[in-house]
Amino acid sequence: MKNNSLFLILQKMRKPFLVILITYTISIIGFLLIEGKDASGNVYHMSIFDAFYFVSYTATTIGFGELPYAFTYPQRIWVTVSTYLSVLGWFYSIGTVVSLLQDKLFLQELEKARFLRQIKNLNEKFIVVLGYNQITRKIIIKALEQGLRTVVIEKDRIKINNLILENFTPTVPVLYSENYSVKVLENAGLKKRNCKAIVSLFEDDALNLRITLIAKALNKNIKVAVKSTTTNHTENLKDLDAEIIVNPFSIISSEISMALWSPNLFKLEKWLYGIDNLNATLPIFPKGLYIICGYGRMGRKIFEKLNQNDIEVKLIEIDKNKDFEFTQKEISNLIFANADDKEILLDIGIKEAVLIAAVTDDDTTNLSILATAKKLNPKIVTIVRENEIADDFLFKNANINHIFTPSKILVNKVTNALVMPLSDTFLKIIIKKDNIWASKLISRLIKEIDEKPLLLELEINEFLAPQIYKYLLSNKNLTMSLLRISLYNKELKNNVVPLLLQRENDIILTPSWEEDIKIGDKILLACDNHAKDDIEYICQNIYEFYYAITGKEKQTILKGFI
User: For labelling alongside 81, which of 12, 144, 239, 372 has CA 20 to 30 A away?
Assistant: First the structure.
């Protein structure tokens, strides 16, 4: 049965219904059989309607009145019997209803039915988020800010209550489920055309892999944003065509490498993620001896990247029973000890070291290590792994040079890839550029716009840019320069810098203003608020578009213009 809640109601209320039916039947039959007397003293028998009417309002305690004539003593005795009989029947029925309303399975089915109605009526673009925690909460907030609805599946009732208490606007439908089966994901709307992505950021790589497999089977067009912590799982996810694969430890190691050799690229990345502005101080990663404390997944990734860049590295790990095999290179640089022990740090060379990274999975341990290191070498540059977002206050007040938070990296990467896909593409491409190229782009952005430009993604189609689309459809030509025209004065230029032009499989970085615009083009622009508004007006409004093309005010719809 599709409506399980209705089925449960029918099943649970079957006996109470029969009890009410039997008590009413017995009471009515009694009134039909017992003789009464009318106003003239003649014998009469109540009609079925009168008997049913009398039993109905007395049994429900609404009131009492003898009809159609005053009752005889036998009738009054039967009234007493039938009243108690029917009241007991109602007590039993009401008790069953109360029990049903407290039944967990019934309440769960009601929630499910409500959720399914919400999904059915959800016509906007949306994403499905698996699990509700500090990370996914921030993803939900950022997605909603960009007009992207979210649907959540969670197996913890407490977390569901926390989500409801957030009172997100618009509402975030949430489904309670102990698993992420095919049926559950289908109920969440994965087959709907307006479902754009599913987010699975569990620590369990095997679970993330299974969810990716199910999602692609249900909807091949859906994007999958998934977490991976090992190279093998990353390759498996790529084989399944997962679009957004996030390994926070690989990202952190790449950022450290960028900060070492291309600090301006690192600055661009932080701007694209909305973390910092373009005038922010360049990160300082000096050359010399590096000490890494905590040799887990993150420590290993950082070591591999530093080793590729010929940086001397010493490793400290407390756990001798790590679940992976060490290479000869690692063994030669690794000691097993407590990294916050002064003697250990002195023996490994803390006095000569230029940088120490505390990257264990315990925030207290990391802060303790760096506090000890600072006392032994006050000039040393410090890097720390922040595991819990809730510890932000402690880390911000610990005088640490660089804080890397895997959970924040997950949020930034996933939301950027989902909400600003062109920005994500742009970032993937520029990573291959050098520091000089990045420096020139930063200078141009600051000079032509400001230190914190906005990002605008534009697709030339009939929905997002209808005026440009119609104009190009008539075999007329337009160039990128259209997007910098000021609607205040056509002779003026808005503060806009083109970052990327994607045409099918071809990508042009920082295209010129003379580049032709084609139907289907995807364009990434950096601009200010005024320019953003003008671009949107030009794309959507026929009058503003006409002014941008001709420099004249459009009074009437001119035939043949568009």
Answer: 12
* 49-85: pLDDT as tens digits: 888 888 888 776 666 666 778 888 888 888 888 888 8
Q: Answer for the pair 286, 256: CB distance below 8 angstroms, yes or no.
A: no
Q: What is the pLDDT of residues 498-547, one digit of tens each?
A: 999 999 889 999 999 999 999 999 999 999 999 999 999 999 999 999 99
- The CATH code belonging to domain 453-550 is 3.30.70.1450
Please spell the DSSP secondary structure of 39-104, one letter per residue.
Answer: TTS-EE---HHHHHHHHHHHHTTS-----SSPPPHHHHHHHHHHHHHHHHHHHHHHHHHHHHHT-H
Q: Say what the pTM is.
A: 0.77
Residues of the chain with CATH 3.40.50.720: 123-246, 249-419
Name which CATH class applies to 249-419.
Answer: alpha beta
- pLDDT attached to residue 555: 65
Secondary structure class of 506 (helix, strand, coil): strand
Of 151, 232, 236, nearest to 199 (Cα)? 151
Alpha helices (H) in 349-505, listed in sequence order = 363-376, 392-396, 406-419, 421-430, 435-448, 466-473
Domain 123-246 belongs to what topology? Answer: Rossmann fold (3.40.50)
Q: Identify the pLDDT of residue 258.
A: 87
Q: How is residue 447 written in tokens?
A: 């000079």
CA torsion angle 172 178 183 187 (round to 10): -10
Q: Which helix (H) or strand (E) segment is 347 a member of?
A: helix 342-348
